[in-house]
Amino acid sequence: MKTPDLNLLVSLNGLIEECSVVGAARRMNLSAPAMSRTLARIREVMEDPILVRSQRGMIPTPKALQIQEQVRGIVELAQGFFVQSQGFDLSTMSRTFSIRANDVFVGAYGVKLAEILNEQAPKSVLRFVAESDLEVDPLNAGSIDLVIGSSRKFGADIKVQNLFSCPFVGIARAEHPIFDEEINPERFASFDHISVSRRGRSEGPIDVALAELSLTRRVSYIIPTFHAALFALSDSDLILPVMPVPMLEKISQLGLKLRTFTLPIPTTSVMIVQAWHPRLEHDEAHRWLRRTLKVLTAD
């Protein structure tokens, strides 16, 4: 059996992510014909086309999608090894930082983090990945550098650091009738609510708090992201009872005519954490990323 060419893994990673021979070639500073020949070698080794033509251009095959996260993890782990071996230099470091976070965090901090990265590590890339309901653990799989979200149970070996406490307020369109009188629990529960849940759930801590007051609410609109909910509020009499405070600055920038209110029922702030696999604990680039996020979110 011939010794495998491990350089093919780097090309394979680029091809799957770019879905383009030309794009992967540009990314690796190769000519398009050279990358085309590399793809032919990969196809032979993998016994799979990897990329196939469609009306939208090149798309990954099912096998390519199946191995994508594993390949990316291997490549980034190798890149991290060489960064440490050659000495840590942000200005010359070429690395893709993959972070899994929801739209609230990305909206509130994503651009700021990208600006810091562009200033201090201009050759690196920031890649946000949406939260998923799949059972695959991206930290152990090596496909994600950091998971950022509400504190929850992670594996015993996973490292976790608190970032900030996230309180909530209610929000509705500025002329909503809820603002005509004092907002008490009864009036709060009398209007139709929006539930933001990527799993499609309509119930949560709000319902528990209302039940203790012998009240119920009607959730008539369930939507997967907070940003989509904001636009729904603008044109309806719906209210969103759990708007994360870190998003308020962005709301004002959007120019939407919305107004916040203090929730008339007890609520608990959510602790937002960053979590990573212990193999990255002493990785200099990863430590820089964690420190940067800690400082960025401290405000």
What value does the average pLDDT take? 87
β-sheet strand percentage: 15-25%
Give the class from helix and strand content and strand pairing.
alpha/beta
CATH fold node name of the largest domain: D-Maltodextrin-Binding Protein, domain 2
The CATH architecture name of the largest domain reads 3-Layer(aba) Sandwich
How do the strands of the widest beta sheet line up side by side? 4-3-5-12-6
The count of helical stretches stands at: 11
SSE pattern, N- to C-terminal: HHHEEHEHEHEEEHEHEHEHEEH
CATH superfamily assignment of the largest domain?
Answer: Periplasmic binding protein-like II
Number of domains: 3
Largest sheet: 5 strands, mixed
> Given this structure, which CATH class of the largest domain is correct?
Alpha Beta
What value does the Rg take, in angstroms?
A: 23 Å
Give a short overview.
The chain has 299 residues and is of the alpha/beta class.
Question: Overview of this structure, please?
Answer:
The chain has 299 residues and is α/β, with parallel strands linked by helices. Helices cover 41% and strands 21% of the residues. It is built from eleven helices and twelve strands. It has helices at residues 7-18, 21-27, 32-46, 62-86, 103-120, 138-141, 185-190, 205-211, 226-234, 248-254, 284-297; strands at 51-54, 57-60, 96-100, 125-129, 146-150, 159-166, 168-173, 193-196, 219-223, 240-244, 258-261, 270-276. The strands form four sheets. A five-stranded mixed beta sheet has the order 4-3-5-12-6, covered by helices on one side. It has a three-stranded antiparallel beta sheet with strand order 10-7-11, covered by helices on one side. A two-stranded antiparallel sheet has the order 1-2. Helix 1 (7-18) crosses helix 2 and helix 1 crosses helix 3 (32-46). The N and C termini lie far apart (57 Å). The mean pLDDT is 87.
